[in-house]
Amino acid sequence: MATSVRRRGLTLGALALTGALALSACGSSDSDSGAKSDGGSSAGNGTRTVGTAMGDVKVPVHPERVVVLDTGELDSALTLGVQPVGGTHSATEDGFPAYLPAARTRGIKEVGEIANPNMEAVAALKPDLILTSKVRDGDRYKQLSAIAPTVMTESTGSDWKNNFKVHAEALGKQAEAKKVVAAYDAHVAKVTEAVGGTKKAAATDVNFVRFVEGADIRIYGKQNYIGSVLADIGMGRPAITDKAKDGFSYDVSPEKIDLADADAVFTSTYGDPDKAGTTRTMKSGLWKNLRASRDGKVFKVDDRLWIAGIGYTAADRILDEFQTRMTG
In this structure, which long-range contacts are made by residues 58-64, counting pairs with CB atoms below 8 Å and at least 24 apart in sequence? Predict the structure, then answer.
């Protein structure tokens, strides 16, 4: 996840969350009985053609051995009721994100790090479908495609909703996806109302600060996963977020952490808190003088959920936690 850091709910018991805005990649499908999927031409022989960042790809109508190479793909698969046979983990931690129930991830074989999968381990699982993104594995596309049909989205992070539609089509789960999207929209409306309604939400500035081992402190902008969730709720964002590079983040040193001031500040750490500067920065006078600090509105959250979840199940959990923190 080192290179992924930059571009990178009701629990799974509520997997029927939120689903399918019109499919961005219009696909075609032939089931074993010859039935077509939503709005596409026949691909024949039990395959479905999916539009991807690398062009059209034929995938099985009913994939049974799916390998996912990033957290967003993992979240999508599990949200849609598909348990992958293999998946990657972050560069700093083994295993899969803790917000996903162990019962659902226990049988998934680890196949290396995100953006650096072990190709032999992937091949050994004999997958019939691989899900990833161009930003993570574009340079490995030919190798992956030689193993199994590989569906890549362009990127990750802020485009997570469109990515989910592509994942749903590749998995043949468009109907389930529509339910997921509808449930998410309803949950967003509930949280917005809980924090005081649209006007109060818009008048309340929220910042997200991420401490990253080996890098500057990141004040997250609006063009990223958590930024899109906050936008869905309708929360206000401080002016500093408009200065974020490419909309992603505005990076600062501990000596400029006062720029992160807001009505509420959510924080997470990627890597070791001491090496990432979390401990030192949060003990500083500048941090303690933040309005959010003085008002008791600084909230530490799980990095692997709020930043790296990148899916609907993660978003659902984030909505629950956000409501609890902001109204508690």
Answer: 58/149, 59/129, 59/149, 59/151, 59/170, 60/128, 60/129, 60/149, 61/29, 61/30, 61/31, 61/32, 61/172, 62/31, 62/32, 62/172, 63/128, 63/129, 63/170, 63/171, 63/172, 64/128
Task: Please give the Cα distance from 24 to 235 (Å, whole number).
Answer: 27
Strand partners, 59: 48
The answer to whether 36 and 26 have CB atoms below 8 angstroms apart is: no
How many degrees, rounded to 5, is the angle at CA 221 between CA 282 and CA 97?
70
Say how many C-beta atoms besides its own lie within 10 A of residue 102's C-beta. Answer: 9
User: How many angstroms separate the Cα of 100 from the Cα of each of 10, 24, 97, 299?
Assistant: 11, 27, 6, 21
Contact 74, 100 (CB under 8 A): yes
Q: What is the pLDDT of residue 55?
A: 97
| pLDDT average, residue stretch 255-281 | 97
| Secondary-structure percent of the chain, ordered helix, strand, coil, rounded to 5 | 40, 20, 40
Residue 130: phi and psi, rounded to 5, are -120, 130
Closest CA to 59 of 77, 40, 78, 46: 46
Q: Residue 155, SS3?
A: coil
Going from the C-alpha of 322 to that of each of 184, 242, 248, the distances in angstroms are 14, 22, 21
By three-state DSSP, how is residue 22 classified? coil
Residue given tokens 């949060």 in the structure block: 282
Identity of the amino acid at 162: N
- In 278-287, which positions are buried (b, 16+ CB within 10 angstroms) versus exposed (e)? beebbeeebb
88: tokens are: 């990657």
Percent of the chain with pLDDT strictly greater than 90: 84
- Length of the chain in terms of residues written: 328
pTM value is 0.85
pLDDT greater than 80 at residue 42? no
As a whole number of angstroms, the distance between CA 58 and CA 298 comes to 48
CA dihedral sign, ordered 18, 310, 67, 162: positive
**Separation between Cα atoms, residue 276 and residue 146, nearest integer Å:** 39
